[in-house]
Input
Amino acid sequence: MLAAGTRPSAGTTMCARARWVGTVFAAVVLVGVGGGVLGSGEAAADQFTPSEQQLVRLLPPGYAARSCTRAANPFPTSIASLDCSQDADSDSPEYARFTLYSNAEAMNADFDVTAGAMMVAPCPDGNPSPGTWTYQSDSGQVGGRIVCGFVDDLADVAWTRDGQLLLATVNGASDLDNLYQWWRRYGGA
Output
């Protein structure tokens, strides 16, 4: 299985696709729920379900509703899942998947599936991978889990925000250090 939020290689077979947790789209034109082109962030958010709108409110800087579509192959236990591409003039990662849950057990199980699909590597700051992360403002408060690594030779960071029941995966770069630094600025906020 490949991690949620990663894109398939050209040779991915249907069998391998079935194992995929999700596919992220890198379309020039993002298609909304009703098939129309998404406009501003607010207009796009109106096309989403209430759970998806809740998820839009949790997006880190560099991602807006207009940059997201409903995930094609979400985890079955999620209540909402969006595939997003970076906004223009943003230093956010090229691809991302944000998934919302109704309980921590389902979120953590899907995190484990995501981590299992990666070629796991140590996180650049020496943080165990997979491991936990803490809020920068309160070094004692665990914010969630994190795993660093690669999928199809692209750097990938997946993490949870336990208090929000959010699982997020970002990828699209060959440089794990830069991707991880982005996560430190925005992902664990």
Summary: The first helix runs from residue 14 to 19. The first strand starts at residue 68 and ends at 70. Residues 71 and 150 are 21 Å apart (CA to CA). The chain has one domain: 14-187.
